[in-house]
Automatic annotation (TrEMBL):
The keyword Nucleotidyltransferase does not apply. This is tRNA-specific adenosine deaminase. It comes from Calidifontibacillus erzurumensis. The gene is tadA. The active site is at E57 (proton donor). Binds 1 zinc ion per subunit. Its cofactor is Zn(2+). The keyword Plastid does not apply.
Length: 167
């Protein structure tokens, strides 16, 4: 894959992240590509479905497995806007995704290089190639802007509550 390809598919992952944000979800999107074709795409649904495992990466992996008719996703690249967490990194290893490309680093939960690197730990029977920081600024802005708006809404709610019932 070229840098152009990586940016192209990351932009599609960003479109997925925007879908998540439009429904009040943390804006994380994922796309899985095999042989230059998108075989799965997803965005976070954890809040709307109240399911701990409804992360963009897991939903995309599940969709790709169904489409290919196999749990082995060899020959695929996963593009995701945020560095995968331990749960998603584990799914990447166990589903045999060959390559992971992510945008923003996750200092609190990233397990593809930040806190640890589960997808390249040679104690597992599969190791994925990793490329980080693709369209990092765009991906980071999506997240920081989302949480900034969320904090502002919570502050306004608290102020409204205090007006109606003195705090």
């Amino acid at each position: 894959m070229t840098e152009f390809d990586d940016q192209y598919y990351m932009k599609i992952a960003i479109e997925e992240a925007n879908k998540a944000e439009s429904i009040g979800e943390v804006p994380i999107g994922a796309v899985i590509v095999k042989d230059g074709t998108i075989i799965a795409r997803a965005h976070n649904l954890r809040e709307s479905e109240q399911r701990a495992i409804a992360h963009a990466e897991l939903l995309a992996i599940d969709e790709a497995c169904k489409k290919l008719g196999t749990w082995r996703l060899t020959g695929t690249t996963l593009y995701v806007t945020l560095e995968p967490c331990p749960m998603c990194a584990g799914a990447i290893v166990l589903s045999r995704v060959d390559r992971v490309v992510f945008g923003a680093f996750d200092p609190k939960g990233g397990c593809v290089g930040t806190l640890m690197n589960l997808v390249q730990d040679d104690r597992f029977n599969h190791i994925a190639e990793v490329k980080s920081g693709v369209l990092e600024e765009e991906c980071s802005f999506l997240l920081s802007n989302f949480f900034k708006k969320l904090r502002e809404r919570k502050k306004q709610q608290k102020e409204t509550e205090c007006k109606n019932n003195p705090c």
